[in-house]
Specification:
Blueprint (H helix, E strand, L loop, with lengths): L1 E5 L4 H10 L3 E5 L9 H7 L8 E5 L5 H10 L3 E5 L11 E6 L4 H6 L13 E5 L12 H8 L3 E4 L8 H8 L3 E4 L4 E3 L2 E2 L1 H17 L1
Parallel strand pairs: 1-2, 1-8, 2-3, 3-4, 4-5, 5-6, 6-7, 7-8
Antiparallel strand pairs: 9-10
Helix pairs in contact: 1-7, 6-7
Length: 205
């Protein structure tokens, strides 16, 4: 079970994510209230614990931006599924929005590998996308998860992630606004609660 906490911008948030036992940290470079600079990312990356994946989150990045995050030592690149740029050696986690044509789009998308045992993995977000806190349709994504390995995002919270895992049966979950005290500022206790709830639901499966 991959648990990813996205949209971090402070050292205490990075430490809280690592201490909670998350698998991946997302740093947002796309236009957003959570967007950070490359310089800030460079200062935060040394605080990421060994074994925690460092994910550079974009929508449709320019090539220079991808080169920069590759130079900084990121482990994974997340971008919109429609983006067709050069990943410069980084594994790609393509992000799909929830939509009526989701299964058809997944069926025609290449089976990329983001890590051992994670071939063909994609992220499926809510209908409004990145950090908006709007859930994806659970039955639609459940159908998609039967076709591909899905990391579920969109509208998840500590109190809802367990049920979402039981219904959708994803290989991972991703949260940003659902563990925030205010837009762009993480609630450290909520981070720990989210990771614990996700792990607990996975163990029940």
């Amino acid at each position: 079970m991959l648990v990813k906490i996205c949209g971090l911008s402070r050292p205490d948030e990075v430490r809280a994510v690592c201490d909670a036992g998350a698998d991946a940290i997302g740093f947002v470079f796309a236009a957003s209230v959570r967007q950070i600079s490359f310089d800030l990312a460079a200062s935060l990356l040394p605080s990421v614990a060994s074994g925690v994946q460092r994910v550079a989150v974009f929508r449709r990045p320019e090539e220079a931006a991808v080169v920069r995050v590759a130079e900084l030592g990121f482990d994974l690149l997340q971008a919109d599924a429609e983006w067709r740029g050069d990943c410069h050696g980084l594994p790609l986690l393509p992000a799909f929005g929830d939509g009526l044509d989701l299964r058809e789009r997944l069926a025609s998308y290449p089976e990329l590998a983001i890590g051992p045992g994670l071939v063909g993995t994609v992220l499926v977000d809510g209908p409004l996308g990145g950090g908006r806190g709007v859930p994806a349709d659970p039955e639609r994504v459940r159908g998609a998860a039967a076709l591909r390995s899905v990391v579920l995002a969109g509208g998840l919270r500590p109190e809802t992630v367990g049920e979402a895992i039981r219904v959708v049966r994803p290989v991972g979950v991703d949260v940003s606004s659902g563990v925030e005290a205010s837009p762009g500022r993480k609630d450290l206790a909520a981070i720990a609660a989210f990771v614990a709830a996700a792990r607990g639901a996975m163990e029940e499966r």
